């Protein structure tokens, strides 16, 4: 089963396995450090559930739920 960042709960950790999508959005996410093999941790969700804050490569990154749904992950 495919898991994506938007399906995880705060506190969960894992490794990014890939970024779906195409064009400029995929390039922008890769430029922000969302590359395969990178460890991450879900920090928190905004009060209304959007955006999601993750800790990746020693910095915090906020992603919209639509963007987080494009990032495939492996839990653990």
Automatic annotation (TrEMBL):
InterPro entries, sorted: Fe-transptr_FeoA-like, FeoA, FeoA_core_dom, Transcriptional_repressor_C
Pfam families: FeoA
A GO term, aspect molecular function: transition metal ion binding
UniProt KW Iron keyword: yes
Highest taxon listed in the record's lineage: Bacteria
Assigned keywords, A-Z: Iron
Keyword tRNA processing: no
Every Ferrous iron transporter FeoA-like domain range: 3-75
Protein name (database record): Transcriptional repressor c-terminal
């Amino acid at each position: 089963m495919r898991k994506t960042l938007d399906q995880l709960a705060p506190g969960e950790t894992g490794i990014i396995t890939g970024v779906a999508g195409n064009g400029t959005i995929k390039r922008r996410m890769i430029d922000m450090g969302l590359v395969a093999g990178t460890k991450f941790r879900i920090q928190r969700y905004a009060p209304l559930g959007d955006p999601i804050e993750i800790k990746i490569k020693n910095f915090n990154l906020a992603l919209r739920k639509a963007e987080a749904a494009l990032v495939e992950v492996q839990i653990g």
